[in-house]
Amino acid sequence: MSLSLGFAVYLVFWWLTLFLVLPWGISRAEPHELEPGEDPGSPSKPRLVLKFAITTVIAAVFFAIFYWVQQSGLISLRYTP
Which of 1-15, 18-32, 59-73 has the lowest mean pLDDT? Predict the structure, then answer.
């Protein structure tokens, strides 16, 4: 697997994992006055940096599993168009 293909596969895993991790821990626990233009369903503390870190670790695990399966020959990308 080339470096560019590995990076592209990791990026796909990262984005898919991000969409799985984003809803974790979202709540509107602190009722407060809404500012003009603020969505009433927006989370009070989204903690995006923590979610990006969790996404990076989980995507790395998924990529490691994919890389192992691909290198072992169980799945081949050789004939993929």
Answer: 18-32
Q: Is residue 14 part of a domain?
A: no
Rounded to an integer, the average pLDDT of 39-68 is 89
Mean pLDDT of the chain: 85
Q: Residue 13: CA atoms inside 13 Å, Cβ hemisphere, count?
A: 20
Domain count, the chain: 1
CB 28 within 8 A of CB 43: yes
Q: How far is 19 from 55, CA to CA, in rounded Å?
A: 9
DSSP collapsed to 3 states, the chain? CCHHHHHHHHHHHHHHHHHHHCCCCCCCCCCCCCCCCCCCCCCCCCCHHHHHHHHHHHHHHHHHHHHHHHHHCCCCCCCCC
Cα separation, 51 vs 42, whole angstroms: 16
